[in-house]
Amino acid sequence: MKDFFKQVWRIVWKSTLALFFLSIVSVIIFRFIPVPFTPLMITRMAEQLGDGKSIKCSKGWVSIDKVSNNMPLAVLCSEDQLFMEHNGFDMKAIEKALEYNDKKKGKKMRGGSTISQQTAKNVFLWQGRSWLRKGLEAYFTLLIEVIWGKERIMEVYLNVIEMGDGIYGTEAAAQEYFQKSAAKLSASQAALIAAVLPNPRKWSPANPTVYIKKKQQWILKQMGYQGGTIDLQAEDKKKEKSR
Q: Which residues are CB-contacts of 205 (< 8 A; sequence separation ≥ 6)?
């Protein structure tokens, strides 16, 4: 029996070490090459097949220098205004979300995830709210903050985030909703895309509701407060100097 437990422990220890090594390697690899697909894309395609629908997975990787500066600024203002300042986690947003969820038990839960956390979840993990997944999300968030930096995190986010039913990334969304490349998105169009991100399969930039139009205007105001532009490279350089 003692030998059995030793063997089990050896297997668990070696498996954990192998997974740790693979996680580091995968983060390093995706620092330099496009992410070809995500667990969510596979899940959505399986759902489409299960519903008897034809598979739709519209995506197209573009480097961040080929995306209108309006787009990263819009998602920053909409999803994570402290993106340039935090190290992956917005503790105040998390505290507010916990307080809200505690008061509104039984209702739809509110999240406090940053763009970094959303990117880590989309690229490396499955959907869900288990403690295991949240723990792994925190782990991968720390890894990409250290290894990727803000510009790469934003680049990956804008290329893999779900922006409609079977639509992933800014380029695919720009082509689908505005028949133009991501490089030519106006501030108004970028704000409209960002406005639907919390639930892109419920809302659509092609047919915005009154609520989405109001949110679009709010995002545009926030973009103005931010100076109408964002410099991700400058932030990464500043952090490199401080290390």
A: 164, 173, 177, 178, 189, 192, 193, 195, 196, 212
Q: How far apart are CA 156 and CA 122, in angstroms?
A: 10
User: How far is residue 105's CA from residue 229's CA, in Å, rounded to a whole number?
Assistant: 39
Phi and psi of 164, rounded to 5°?
A: 160, 180
Shortest CA distance to 129 belongs to which of 149, 111, 104, 147?
Answer: 111
The stretches of 1-149 forming alpha helices (DSSP H) are: 2-29, 39-50, 70-79, 91-103, 115-124, 131-147
In angstroms, what CA-CA distances link 177 with 130, 218, 223? 34, 20, 21
pLDDT digits (tens, 9 = 90+) for 110-146: 556 999 999 999 999 988 888 889 999 999 999 999 9
Do the Cβ atoms of 178 and 187 come closer than 8 Å?
no
At the topology level of CATH, where does 64-242 sit?
Penicillin binding protein transpeptidase fold (1.10.3810)
pLDDT digit string, tens, across residues 161-210: 999 999 999 999 999 999 999 999 999 999 999 999 999 999 999 999 99
131 exposed, middle or buried (CB, 10 Å; 0-12, 13-18, 19+)? exposed
Question: Which residues, 6 or more positions from 37, have their beta carbon under 8 angstroms from its beta carbon?
Answer: none
**What's the full length of the chain, in residues?**
243
Indicate whether 79 pLDDT > 80: yes
pTM for the full predicted model: 0.89
Domain range annotation of the chain: 64-242
Q: What are the DSSP calls for 60-87, one per residue?
A: ----GGGS-THHHHHHHHHH-TTTTTSS
Q: How many angstroms separate the CA atoms of 168 and 157, rounded?
A: 10
